[in-house]
Specification:
Blueprint (H helix, E strand, L loop, with lengths): L10 H8 L3 H21 L4 H17 L10 H30 L15 H14 L4 H11 L5 H8 L3 H21 L1 H6 L8
Helix pairs in contact: 1-2, 2-3, 2-4, 3-4, 4-8, 6-8, 7-8
Length: 199
């Protein structure tokens, strides 16, 4: 086996891979690494994340090599693993982004610079606003005026005819409650519950 050329579409190739052939694994890596990298970047992932996806995919493949079927479509199998890791990474990045926004004084969930205008972000923001609807009235008013109408703290204070300090306190409490909700539901978010599937 080690002295002949390898065909990744050949059943014997899968058998060799299952048997732990380093050459078969290296050939597969050389053939698909660049393709998986491009696939990951099309998901919106950066260079480092895309490189990480390549590593994750081939580690997973090596760990599961003995379960490969000789009739299995390697191409479809690798892209299935890659898509799964890309989705998980995008979810993690989105959670981190939301945490940063909720931690940043004056940050807005409607800020076009802070959040790219894509379906993942829009779906997540919709979930956030479902949580916002359950906040106490005062916190909900301040949060929506800040994030939906893009009013400053001073403008909100004037609109509600309350001290700016009270506006800041309500905003702080609202953000604190939402951070807690995001953290509490993190496992559900990772499982995709409450958000539509990504891609």
């Amino acid at each position: 086996m080690e002295n002949r050329s390898l065909d990744i579409h050949d059943e014997k190739f899968i058998q060799d891979l299952r048997a732990g052939s380093n050459r078969a694994f290296a050939l597969l890596f050389d053939h698909y690494a660049g393709k998986i990298y491009r696939f990951a970047t099309k998901f919106g992932l950066g260079h480092e994340d895309a490189e990480g996806i390549i590593q994750d995919v081939f580690i997973k493949l090596w760990e599961r090599k003995k379960s490969l079927d000789s009739q299995q479509n390697v191409n479809a199998y690798l892209y299935k693993i890659a898509k799964s890791y890309c989705i998980k990474r995008k979810k993690k990045l989105l959670l981190e982004k939301v945490f940063v926004l909720l931690e940043t004084e004056g940050a807005s969930l409607a800020d076009p610079v802070a959040l790219e205008n894509d379906v993942i972000v829009n779906d997540f923001i919709s979930l956030i606003y479902r949580w916002v609807a359950k906040l106490p009235k005062g916190q909900r008013e301040v949060f929506e005026l800040r994030n939906k109408e893009q009013l400053s703290m001073d403008e909100i204070a004037e609109r509600l005819n309350i001290p700016k300090r009270k506006v800041e306190n309500r905003m702080y409490q609202a953000n604190k409650a939402l951070r807690s909700k995001v953290a509490a539901d993190k496992l559900l978010l990772w499982a995709g519950i409450g958000i539509i599937d990504f891609l």
